[in-house]
Amino acid sequence: MDRDNMSLESSMKVAGSFMSVAGLVGALLVVFVLPGNNYFTGVMLLMLAILLISGLGTLFVGLLLTYRRVIGRAIATPAILLSRLLGR
User: Fold this and answer.
1) Which pTM does this prediction carry?
2) What is the DSSP letter of 36?
3) CB distance 16 to 57 below 8 Å
4) Does pLDDT of 4 surpass 60?
5) What is the reported pLDDT for 65?
6) In angstroms, rounded to a whole number, what is the distance separating the alpha carbons of residues 10 and 8?
7) Residue 27 contacts residue 49 (beta carbons within 8 Å)
8) Residue 73 burial (CB count, 10 A)
């Protein structure tokens, strides 16, 4: 694997981790620090939920890129065994 792919995977995992943690911590702060149930609190929670979800997605894609060979083998092995069992 070349350096460019490694740096992309690493940066995606780091960025996803930071985005997820920032969204979670921000949501907890909004819920526990901001008083009342007003429009601003709802908008902030919505934006932080979007940040959390996009961070988890980025982290997931980074992990997929890192372990794509392992995941590919894990998916392909049962299919290969099943096709051999069925005689195709």
Assistant:
1) 0.62
2) S
3) yes
4) no
5) 78
6) 6
7) yes
8) 11
